[in-house]
Design a protein that fits this description.
Strand content: 25-35%
Number of helices: 4
CATH architecture: 3-Layer(aba) Sandwich
Helix content: 25-40%
Oligomer: single chain
Strand order of the largest sheet: 1-2-3-5-4
């Protein structure tokens, strides 16, 4: 994300990832295929520059990342998106957006692709 002067104000990265079914919260795992390792999308980093914080740009970047992740499941299967919170504020940010912490790794969070699909279907009136 760049401003009018073409300066970077925020960014994120997405990549293919694998997550163990047993790492997921039980209420999520019971709805997914029973493979030991599931394909997922890793939201490797999401950041907003210090001078642009508080403008809801992080939310816009997250929604863009989730939208792209969801749309790409037509080409590359993904059970959901995994993110890792670098601090308490990031943890709260992801939890606020319906990510659930993994039991063994509370700083690592997951949101199911079905949840993402439902959110975007609702915003499109579907």
């Amino acid at each position: 994300m760049v401003d009018a002067a073409k300066r970077v104000v925020g960014y994120y990265t997405l990549s293919a990832y694998g997550i163990r079914l047993t790492d997921l919260p039980p209420q999520v795992a019971k709805k997914l295929p029973k493979y030991p390792l599931l394909p997922a999308t890793l939201l490797g980093r999401l950041a907003v520059s210090r001078e642009h914080r508080g403008q809801k740009l992080g939310r816009l970047l997250l929604m863009d990342a989730l939208w792209r992740s969801w749309k790409n499941t037509k080409q590359v299967a993904s059970a959901g998106v995994v993110a890792e919170a670098i601090d308490a504020a990031a943890l709260e940010f992801y939890r606020h957006h319906e990510f659930a912490s993994l039991a063994e790794h509370p700083q690592k969070l997951f949101i199911a692709m079905a949840t993402i699909e439902k959110a975007f279907s609702l915003t499109r009136g579907g």
